[in-house]
Amino acid sequence: MESPIEANGLRRSFGDIEAVCGVDLSVSQGEIYGFLGPNGAGKSTMVRMLTTLLKPSAGRARVAGFDVATEADEVRRRIGVALQDAAIDPLMTGNELLHLQATLHGLGRKEGKERGRELLDRVGLTDAGDRRVQTYSGGMRRRLDLAMSLLHQPAVLFLDEPTTGLDPSSRLNLWEEVRRLNTEGTTVFLTTQYLEEADELAHRVGIIDGGLIVREGTPAELKAAVGSPTLRIDVSPDQFGTANEVLGRFGEQRPAREGRLAIGLDKGASRLTDVVRALDEANVSVLHMELDAPSLDDVFAEATGRRLEGQAE
Asked: What is the pLDDT of residue 177?
């Protein structure tokens, strides 16, 4: 069976600006594929091409077995899309919106009603089905949007930052629903700004930067490739230059937030004593020190030269 998402040399330009620069991509049947990238990297443009909202400038992409440019209607019939900026009429109720969605997908009245009732139950909104959406919390709206995207039982589901702005409990609930959908055979293409989310859910991760995929693999493979753990220290501003020179003897510098130093510590924890001794000999007073095993945050930083927006570093 061919891959439900396949792209070859995919490009998209806006005037003189090339947002996506020849991307090759293959997502396997039944896979959750995490798609990460800093702002302006081409992530949203890529998703919009795969969901037929933008036509590629060059190259080719097939989703659910159909070409996104020449067979867009066939693609739309087979995908579910829950975009971060999805417009949901606040004056309609959850049940009314699901009924409208069922009609748009050509479901019969009885089938649409039964499917809507089932999905509201799945996302925990049964008791809110007759309430106007303007009374819903942000988490409830995201869960309703997910239910609407699943009404026609799509083969491929695109989720664009599905948990942005949700409280921790709502985020965990949505994670469980994504896992359940995936175990039922749905292929999921997930864009997220939360590296923990990609680590928890994705079978494979792709990182796009400058319009190109710069890293791809399982979370475990990507973290193993980073190698050394990250040592982070805080010092007073007047000792920053000295501390930076000392740390440079023990590993390569890694991106960190302003006012903090970070390196990939060669040989890991076994060198910590040497680092502390060297800093002490240089009369550097350390305000805070931590050593972290490689994470997707480190993978992202190594691949793009920066931390993902919204992360701690």
From this structure: 86
Give Cα 246 distance to the centre of its chain.
Answer: 36
Cα–Cα distance, 45 to 10 (Å, whole number): 11
Q: How far is CA 56 from CA 19, 24, 301, in A?
A: 11, 13, 29
Residue 214 tokens, joined: 């710069």
Residues 250/263, Cβ–Cβ less than 8 Å: yes
Question: Which residues have C-beta within 8 Å of that of residue 146, sequence separation ≥ 6?
Answer: 82, 123, 159, 162, 174, 177
Which neighbouring-strand residues pair with 8?
Answer: 60
**pTM for this one?**
0.79
Q: Give how far Cα 136 sits from Cα of 131, 132, 172, 285, Å.
A: 8, 7, 18, 51
Residue type, 1: M
Tell me the residue type at 225: A
Give me Rg for the CA atoms of the chain.
23
SS3 label, residue 13: strand
Confidence of residue 312 (pLDDT cuts 50, 70, 90): very low
pLDDT at 276: 95
Cα 266–Cα 216–Cα 18 angle in degrees, nearest 5 = 115
Could you give the CA distance from residue 234 to residue 142 in angstroms, rounded to a whole number?
Answer: 38
Q: Are strands 230-235 and 156-160 parallel, antiparallel or unpaired?
A: unpaired
As beta bridge partners, residue 234 has 260, 288
- The encoded tokens of residue 211 equal 């319009």
309 three-state secondary structure: coil
d(CA 71, CA 256): 45
Taking only the tens place, the pLDDT of each residue in 111-131 is 888 999 999 988 889 999 999
Count other Cβ atoms within 10 Å, centred on residue 134.
Answer: 12
Are the CB atoms for 283 and 235 separated by under 8 Å?
no
